[in-house]
Design a protein that fits this description.
This protein is mainly beta and about 80 residues long. It has one domain: Nuclear Transport Factor 2, Chain: A. The chain is built from 1 helix and 4 strands. It has one helix at about 65-70; strands at about 1-10, 15-25, 40-50, 55-60. Strands 1-2-3-4 form a 4-stranded antiparallel β-sheet. A hairpin with a 2-residue loop joins strand 3 and strand 4 (about 55-60). The relative contact order is 0.23.
Amino acid sequence: MNYTVGPLLTDGSRAAAYLVGQATHQESFFGIEATGSAVEFRGSYHCRVADGLIAEDWDVFDLSTPLLRVGGVIAQP
């Protein structure tokens, strides 16, 4: 798995970055056996820094796109 870091924004003690991940589906993913397919997913990473260390961090990734790429189905309610 590789990540490409896009724009990085900072504001005081907070930072955010846009990320693009690339991977190969080599193991079970949400119950779907390995397909060998290349997948890409996008998301953002956010953190708060205090005393020179990351005090909090959280991220948001779109995992539905790679799930569909390897043959998954998104259930409708």
